[in-house]
Specification:
Layout (H helix, E strand, L loop, with lengths): L3 E2 L4 E2 L1 E6 L6 E6 L6 E6 L1 H9 L15 H5 L39 E2 L1 H8 L3 H17 L4 E2 L1 H10 L6
Parallel strand pairs: 6-7
Antiparallel strand pairs: 1-2, 3-4, 4-5
């Protein structure tokens, strides 16, 4: 949407924005030819609609960041959530930071399923089959096992504490 200065037939440019704090937005536009100014005032409901759509009144001054709209709704958004810098380990026991557990790093290998293991997987209810397959595949990749067999499935269940399931 653009505003047109009728006497000059020129497109008005954005000049200033004010957020009074009562849920409204005031945007000031200026004609470059005659310096005529015009203000646009939005009520709280219009302000909420515009904000929820991710529209920046007056245009964006920096490039949009990944998941910017979602992050802006968080109580405490992190500015460094998508930085390429090394992630600091949150420390403490039980921390699942990628930098604090180098012993869990492994080279991804292609894992195949033996016909017997595939048949056994067929006995798992369909709605959880993908998750179960993923658990066994991740286990095999971590242990550098190329073919998943029923024996590998038994070892994984034992080592991962899944016997009761």
């Amino acid at each position: 949407m653009k505003f047109l200065c009728i006497p000059c037939d020129e497109v008005m440019s954005f000049s200033d924005r004010d957020l009074p704090g009562d849920g409204t937005i005031t945007a000031l536009f200026r004609c470059g030819a005659c310096d005529r100014e015009m203000a646009m005032l939005t009520n709280p409901m219009e302000t909420q609609l515009v904000t929820s759509l991710g529209v920046e009144i007056g245009g964006r001054t920096v490039p949009e960041q990944p998941l910017q709209q979602t992050r802006s709704r968080l109580d405490t958004p992190r500015d460094d959530a998508f930085s390429d810098d090394e992630v600091s380990s949150g420390g403490g026991e039980g921390s699942s930071s990628a930098t604090s557990a180098p012993d869990h790093e492994f080279v991804r290998i292609r894992v195949t399923w033996s016909p017997e293991a595939t048949d056994r997987l067929g006995g798992v209810p369909r709605f959880v089959r993908g998750m179960v397959k993923r658990i066994y595949t991740d286990y095999a990749q971590e242990k550098q096992i190329e073919v998943i067999t029923p024996d590998v499935m038994d070892r994984a269940r034992s080592e991962l504490g899944l016997e009761g399931m």
